[in-house]
Amino acid sequence: MIIANETNSICSNMERKNDLTFSTPIGNITGRVKQAKNGKTVCQLLGIPYVQSQPVAENRFRRCDISTKLPADSFEAVSFGNAAIQRAPSRQLSIISPEIPQCEDCLTINIWTPSYIRQNDPIVGANQKLHPVFLFIHGGAFQQGTVSDEPFNGTNLCAHEEIVVVTFNYRLGILGFLDIPGVVEPNLGIRDQEVAIKWVECYIQYFGGDSENITLCGFSVGSVSVACHTLNPNSDLNFNRAIMMSGALLGFFGFEKDQSVSTSDSREFLIQNGWKKSHQSSDQENDSIRSFLQNLPLDVFKNQFVDSVSGKGLKFGPVLDFDLQNVDQIQKKMKVREILVTSTHAEGEAFLYSLLGRETCNKLNKNDDKLYTNIITQMFSRFLPENSRRAENYVKICNFYRNKKVCFGNVEDTLFHKCALAIGNYLNDYPVLKSIQFYLKLECEARPKIYFKLHDYVQSDHKTRYFDTDIVPEYLNCSHGFEIPLLFNNLNDGHSDTDQEVSVKTMNLIGSVCRFDNISSNEREKLFGQQVKLNTGNLNPEIEMKNLSVSKSLEITTRDDLFHSRLHGIDYNRLYSDILDFWDGIDQISYQTLC
What we know:
Oligomer: single chain
Structural class: alpha/beta
Number of domains: 2
Number of strands: 18
């Protein structure tokens, strides 16, 4: 029987009076009681090492094993762990606070649990109900990001939905995705994720979580990672459901299909930083490279994060290490039963604004057609695969999106929005739809139920943590990452009642996915909808789209379901109905393995 005890009188200051210690097979772990916005209390446990040895010194560029014993008999989990080594991007986009320490010693996990009882009452026992687990993977292009930050604090989500919330850090960039055969195996950052998920499977019961009811959620490249974990037939992970927020397995920000590209980038990194090839045997050369990497100062790795996105896609990102075309093997190993796919109305606007900056975007927002044409050409000469980088394709993209309706309500439809829609469609929406097509190929008994939800709500002060809040333009629609503060209910000061209402409904949706097996059919229909056919009604987009939960999600069972006439009050045909056909005509290479 596992019990939680109040920390003894040694804890002298007032904040530690309510600390709680959880007894686990790897040692005693002490967390801190926190009060959520709704008045309920949860126990917060931060910065718990989930690997036996951190990837420092001689363990740099090596796979880490799951923790079987804490560094000491007891561990005080009362502060966030370090962020992974990274460098914050330039311009207006910032996804990590400069105050957060960065270190190779970064593989830690955070837990928020509603399941604690004082004075030796059991947390886990015959009469104690275990809670569903929500396990979150952060984004950041596999280059930046961390959950060691208050915007990802799970207190409010945990308390409101009575689920156990778990977040963790993993290695990024070069330290997580260098690929040198015989020296550094690829995808160490993905291997970190697998260890963290395994840690949750093994130990979450000791914190009141149900290890047989885990929902894996990811945002941006966290969603890319979740897609990998659902499809990888070599994985032995056990989670029941998946939530993929704005990200798909393949595409510019997805997994590289050609390992030779990853290996070439890694070799280039060695040479640029002073390693010299000599006439040695293969084993001697590998030892030489290993020693060279072990002795490189950390500043070298930080500096390499500048402009780490190349024209080939992600530089120092994951490489696909299983066969997507072996559908039979994927079907046999498929364990996930339900998948919720979410996207925002204007995925590309935040990305475009972060790349171009305020001045250029303001000009674009004033309908400078020459600038629009130049930006489309410049961007897609970088994003498209080499065989698709042709002048006629850039002209097609310009014309196709120049005629697209993007905005609704009082927001003026400008060339900024059209340019951003082109980028968002290609980098996010198109790969997401191609991924959904792939799931639909699976045999019925193996195919998970797929639900799609479009998010289109901007907080009342039009601010989001991803930007310098003094310069966020009011013409931005709901874009990449705008739903994160709503998901965790960590809103800006001065938020409106509507902001809080939409945040509560967002948490309800996520909580219902986690409790999917235990909610009534009526509640399922209300939140997720029934199978939606064509011609489902004529909702007013200018009214209905303002609230995330006004209309139902879409259960997708056929390709036609991607193109029904109305979804969430938005004229979905006007936005996305033809993007599959259009981009299939432009890019005939990137998704061949999916189709």
